[in-house]
Amino acid sequence: MTQDQLKQQVAEAALEHIPEGAVLGIGSGSTIEKLIALLKQRKPEACVASSVKTAELLKAQGIEVVDLNDCGQLELYIDGADEVNRHLYMIKGGGAALTREKIIAAASKEFLCLADQSKWVETLGKFPLPIEVIPMARSYVARQLVAMGGDPEYRSGVTTDNGNQIIDIHNLDLTDTQQVERDINQIAGVVTSGLFAQRAADKLILATPEGIQIKTAMYE
Ligand code: 5RP
């Protein structure tokens, strides 16, 4: 089974986890694009979009897109991930939408993550960690991340929906995940890191060649 087929399966499996008639937060990426194509079945009242592209796709389906400022706490946020572990900590931001994704996740009661098997990892960090930075701070932030043990790489040619830049950090030790997330947040010029540990997912729907698995966070 291809990764694309697994993404389709997880999108289909997600439908029964989405309440009918709700205001939903909707993430970004190819998995979520497959969900958007099916979402009308759940008759959402409206959606808050985590990227310009997601907003366009939702509107193309005839789904109303609203500003987060016009909503209270959202019932549910649904998004993909680049990596997810058994604590349902994630690396996100492969599509550069991490800041709006983190804001909507924080503003939602529940975070439902949709992933195919390739995203399920024992240890986070093989996928380089995206960091959104204010453009003038890019080199400064990169030097601070070198001091933390990482190898930064500028994602050349990419401007986020917020007008900022992305650096991808390789080889950073993410074992103490929540602390690393806090430490990166303290660096002047960082807008958001793609580590989602302080606000992890609440539930994961994982598509594997053996079938769909539903996972909640495991704590040792
Ligand atoms: C975008 C994201 C996406 O959720 C992540 O990149 C997964 O994308 P895909 O579903 O295309 O594999 O964080 O910023």
Summarize the structure.
With 220 residues, this protein is of the alpha/beta class.
Structural class: alpha/beta
The rounded distance between the terminal residues' Cα atoms is 33 Å
Mean pLDDT comes to 97
Q: Which small compounds were modeled alongside the protein?
A: ribulose-5-phosphate
Domain module tally = 2
Secondary-structure element sequence?
HEHEHEEEHEEHEEHEEEE
Written account of the structure:
By secondary structure, the chain is of the alpha/beta class. The chain has six helices and 13 strands. The protein has helices at about 5-15, 30-35, 50-60, 100-105, 140-145, 175-185, and strands at about 25, 45-50, 75-80, 85, 90, 110-115, 130-135, 150-155, 165-170, 190-195, 195, 205-210, 210-215. Helix 1 packs across helix 2 (about 30-35). The relative contact order is 0.18. The chain binds ribulose-5-phosphate. Ribulose-5-phosphate (5RP) binds near residues 29, 79 and 80.
Topology:
Layout: H1 3-14, E1 23-26, H2 30-36, E2 46-49, H3 52-60, E3 74-79, E4 83-84, E5 90-91, H4 98-106, E6 108-116, E7 129-133, H5 138-147, E8 151-154, E9 165-170, H6 177-185, E10 190-193, E11 195-196, E12 203-208, E13 211-216
Parallel strand pairs: 1-2, 1-3, 3-6, 6-12
Antiparallel strand pairs: 4-5, 5-11, 7-9, 7-10, 8-9, 12-13
Helix pairs in contact: 1-2
The structure holds ribulose-5-phosphate.
